[in-house]
Structure to design on (317 residues):
């Protein structure tokens, strides 16, 4: 079912059915997006619940000004970034950096199935600033266009390109340093 | 949209279980549909109008009480001038204030011991201290 059909269903009074269709179409996709940002399966699982509660409560106010899936990605990205912000404060209180704790999560993750290069890439991504990380993940893992990411993040395409470029350069340097050691 | 690439894994049957859990959200979080309420313009601007009125009132009341004594009376002006001039009078040559002549004209060519004692007495220095200074 397309986004348009889902919204029509919702406005026809079949809210529960429309929501089930949203869950069916987007739960897995949003799971991977959030997982690429927060790493841990358990955290992602909790956040997915929050995200879909927000989607359900905010659906009546969706006016169709943005594309429906970019609206969903925006909610998911904001929830994940808020979570990382809180984690950052918690990490600072225990005198460690968020990047280090995220890297440790990847190293200890029993559900990581990438090779050595992918492991190093995931670790390098976790060392990026939050917004750059979100831009990089949306572009690299979700393969969204800059225009779509611009709608999600509320940032101009030019700024996104610059942000992606900086993220790319940092990751390249990080991987180069790790593999030349 | 294209297929996404990922380097993580999930437990067996996780997405089916997740889907079931998420589909239960509408029954756990009923959305209360609130009818759209149109607020009249006057209701929206009333606090700002009240704030502006208060500020105007404070301005006019303050101006009334403080502004009515704004110009000093003639006697007050004389006193003010007196205090102003008093600050300018040099203690060593009080007459210099009355005209524009250079200070040197009033200053004695050389100060005798008597002049010094007189000055010290007039400036409130104790007699004992003056005697002590003279005996140095």
């Amino acid at each position: 079912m397309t986004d348009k059909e889902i919204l029509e269903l919702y406005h026809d009074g079949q809210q529960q059915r429309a929501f089930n269709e949203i869950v069916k179409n987007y739960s897995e996709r949003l799971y991977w997006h959030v997982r690429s940002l927060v790493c841990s399966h358990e955290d992602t699982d909790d956040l997915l619940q929050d995200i879909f509660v927000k989607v359900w409560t905010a659906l009546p106010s969706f006016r169709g000004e943005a594309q429906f899936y970019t609206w969903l990605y925006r909610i998911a990205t904001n929830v994940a970034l808020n979570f990382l912000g809180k984690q950052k404060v918690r990490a600072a209180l225990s005198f460690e950096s968020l990047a280090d704790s995220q890297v440790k999560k990847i190293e200890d993750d029993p559900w990581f199935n990438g090779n050595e290069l992918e492991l190093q890439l995931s670790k390098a991504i976790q060392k990026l600033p939050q917004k750059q990380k979100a831009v990089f993940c949306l572009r690299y893992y979700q393969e969204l266009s800059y225009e779509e990411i611009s709608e999600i993040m509320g940032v101009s395409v030019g700024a996104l390109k610059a942000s992606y470029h900086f993220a790319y350069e940092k990751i390249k340097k990080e991987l180069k340093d790790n593999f030349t050691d | 949209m294209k297929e996404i690439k990922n380097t993580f894994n999930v437990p067996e049957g996780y997405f089916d279980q997740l889907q079931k859990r998420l589909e239960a959200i509408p029954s756990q979080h009923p959305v209360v549909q609130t009818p759209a309420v149109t607020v009249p313009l006057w209701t929206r601007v009333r606090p700002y109008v009240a704030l502006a009125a208060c500020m105007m009132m404070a301005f006019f009341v303050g101006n009334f009480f403080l502004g009515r004594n704004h110009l000093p009376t003639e006697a007050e002006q004389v006193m003010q001038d007196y205090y102003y001039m008093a600050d300018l009078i040099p203690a060593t040559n009080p007459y210099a204030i009355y005209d524009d002549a250079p200070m040197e004209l009033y200053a004695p060519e050389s100060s005798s011991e008597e002049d010094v004692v007189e000055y010290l007495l007039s400036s409130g220095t104790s007699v004992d201290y003056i005697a002590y200074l003279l005996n140095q």
Remarks:
- The first helix of chain A runs from residue 3 to 11.
- The two ends of chain A are 50 Å apart (CA to CA).
